[in-house]
Amino acid sequence: MGSQNPSRGNDTVHILVTGFSPFYGNPINPSFPIASSLPPTLSSPSLPGTNIQIHAHPTPIRVSYKDVRQGVPALLFSRSDLAVPRKGLVPQRPMQQETSNDTPYGSHPPSSVRPNFDIVIHIGVAAKQNFFALEKCAHRDGYNDKDFDERTIKGDDFWEKEYKAPELLTTSFDTGDVWRRWKDGLSGEDVRLSDDAGHYLCDFLYYTSLVEYWRRDPRGKRPVMFLHVPGGVGEEDIVRGRNVTLMLIKALVESMKTRGVDGKENVRF
Length: 269
Known about the structure:
Blueprint: E1 12-18, H1 31-36, E2 41-42, E3 51-56, H2 65-77, E4 101-103, E5 106-108, E6 119-125, E7 132-135, E8 137-139, H3 158-163, E9 168-170, H4 175-184, E10 191-194, H5 201-214, E11 224-229, H6 235-258
């Protein structure tokens, strides 16, 4: 992954997986139990010699615009060596030998800091659907619905003014290739590609992560994906989500190893 590769060796891939906290109409959000159920390591016969390290974030991300925009940049780029925060979304101790850029939304890591992970997967719930959707892109604007704190960011122009960020950002994975590998590894499961992450916290979190990569190198890698899961919260639903997520992880690593994550997909201003 070039200069933005945090791996400790060519045979190790570090993957961050996050889930959300409950919110209106979803007293149990299955995204976090699914993320929490993942094993710490994963191997695949199609990836001999590759050690996949899964870092499931230990707490759910709050359904809060402010918390996401304050916390996610430090989670992804908090320091030059791999460090997974153990309490909450934001690291509890200040990072040494590192300065940050102060913004209205807290101190964001400077653009020189390397990413903590090779791949980032955010999981969220789409309660009314019974299929799994892999989101291809995220939106900068249009967040008019209130979050769990009863706040909205309607009319917010922080990303546009602070970073000159585009209206739409895509992942730099070859999503068609990832989807084919993902689908081929599952039997009878309905998995789809989507270009509408919903203009709520799922979409907002996805853009927040993508823009942190984009602002460091607009033509560089953005190895972030967002997975929408169905709303079922029973044990069988969590197992189903776990299996689908594990197959997605394998598909992403396989695609990264064979196709790369080259940042060629477009952004829209």
